[in-house]
Amino acid sequence: MSKLELKNITKSFSVNSSSGERRRVLAVDNVNLSIEEGQFVCFVGPSGCGKSTLLNIIAGLDTPSEGELVLNGQSVIGTGPDRIMVFQENALFPWLTVIDNVEFGLKMVGVEKEKRNKIALHYLEMMDLSKFSKSYTYQLSGGMKQRVAIARALVMDPDILLMDEPFAALDSQTRDLLLVELQLIWAKTRKTIIFVTHNISESICLGDKVVVFTKRPARVKKEIEIDYRRPRLTEDSNLFEYNRLVLDELKGEISQHKRTI
User: Which domains does the chain have, with CATH numbers?
Assistant: First the structure.
């Protein structure tokens, strides 16, 4: 049985046209996907194609106009602790220390202090942040803040970890380091991860499977399996063939997208 199934997911919404009239915009069109337990899946597609909209639907932050989301064999609607999102903007609380940020979700669901502290320290150690547990997040670098955000998500032990371009705002050196660290964390936790990115090399480095989407409305164009050892490095020349496969699928979509802007 698949961990997560997207069945005929479609999303449309109304916008005001230049004439002031309301019109329907189709953002996601009839997406069908099956994601296995412990699989690392990357979503890639042209900017504005609907990848993040689809991720929000999976998270329960948005509702599909049509279709069904099935998790562990059960239809799901709305948000839940079984699906936790890590955003590009880390959304940490600057008035709280690192460990208080990481414990926050556990505190909200009523986990007693000693237990949540133990869980939080475990994930801070995993993220190499133990010595910064009493620091405030405004004292940390961008890469360290994203480590805190990932730790905060992992303490909730979600069925699926959702990541919406979490490394996009980081410098290339920090991003490459976190790409390796995230693979090591995934190997330790075996979490099912869905990761949205614009970066082809990033998707190849991380994914067991890369799902390539068309220009808006988002449709699944190709699912590419990445069968290569880990941890992977973006500069590994053996990954260039996978990069070419993804790029070939995207080329037509990006050029069409530019002509419609």
Answer: 4-82+159-260 (3.40.50.300), 92-157 (no CATH)
